Amino acid sequence: MLRYVLTRVGLLLAGLVVASALIFATLRVLPGDVAQMIVGTNGTPDQVAQVREQLGLNEPVLGQYFSWLGGMLRGDFGNSLLTGSAVSDELLQKAQVTVPLGIMAMAVALLVSIPFGILSALGRGRAGGTTLNISAQALAAVPVIWAGMMLIIVFSLWLGWLPAQGFPRGGWATPGPAFAALILPAITIGVVEGAVLMRFVRSATLQAMNEDYVRTAAAQGLTRTQALLRQGLPNVGLSIITVLGLQFAGIIVGAVVIEKLFNLPGIGRMLVTDVGNRDLPMVQGELLVLTGVVLLIGFAVDIVHRLIDPRQREAA
């Protein structure tokens, strides 16, 4: 097991290095001059050249990359070209919004998908199962931004139960308002993602119900539901864990639209702003963090599979 974990860690680190190179190279081909944006449209060529020299933009691209990579190994992601603030400090501050939002959205998705997906499979061919299946297909097709707008209208404008936009200036120092500010965004993402996941849970459950070990358990006196819960779900859980990892990665990366809609100061909203400002150190750090989250989730899924699936250990 230790050898497997070390191998996966090595692949994770290699993936991060490759991702950093791709991010760095891709951003260098974007149009626009950072130095020109800093000095403004009225800046002289000498001023632009001076800013480029101060920011190290005249150095060879390969040298800039290795300088950035070496700084990251020391925990230094560089400083913003526009504000001068440390990228790592900004990322830590914005992550206090994005990470809790992703966790809350995933919790909502699980509450929607697993029980209703199983009920939809058990009720196949009956009115209840058909209704749940049609509802899941309809919700999965709803654009996230439209769902968010509808929730704002109902729960903020009409009922006044929850804030429509914004996040407390003090952050989690005031946990009540901070949690309330994330409820509607989390429900928006979680319900739509949960509908997608519910369809997968239903398909996996239906497949498990047709397996020999479930039919054998039913033949031994268990009801179909009891046989499924005792024998089928542990095997269904393995495939669900894999999809959960992909869904959670998609929630974190896809928070850009929701953070913009609900005016949340998270990594997604900051990324949109920094791309427009051509603040390359900030954009590089943000993209690398988001990529690292996706790779970490994949790493965690692999380890969990190894721990709970005896077939993988026996094959090794």
Q: Architecture of the largest domain, according to CATH?
A: Orthogonal Bundle
Query: Averaging pLDDT over every residue, what do you get?
Result: 81
Give unreliable regions as ranges: none
Summing up helix and strand content along with how strands pair, one would put the structural category as mainly alpha
Q: What's the assembly state of these chains?
A: single chain
Q: Treating each run of at least 4 consecutive H or I residues as one helix, how many helices?
A: 14
Order of helices and strands: HHHHHHHHHHHHHH
Alpha-carbon distance between the two ends: 9 Å
CATH superfamily of the largest domain: MetI-like
In total, the number of strands is 0
Label the overall shape.
Answer: globular
Total of domains: 2
Largest sheet: none
Radius of gyration over alpha carbons? 24 Å
Report the top-level CATH class of the largest domain.
Mainly Alpha
Q: What is the share of helical residues?
A: over 70%
Give a description of the structure:
The chain is mostly helical and 316 residues long. The chain folds into two domains: 2-73, no CATH class; 95-265, MetI-like (MetI-like fold, Orthogonal Bundle), CATH 1.10.3720.10. It has 14 helices and no strands. α10 packs antiparallel against α13, α11 packs across α12 and α12 (267-277) packs antiparallel against α13 (280-308). The longest helix has 36 residues, at 87-122. The chain is globular, with a radius of gyration of 24 Å. The N and C termini lie close together (9 Å).
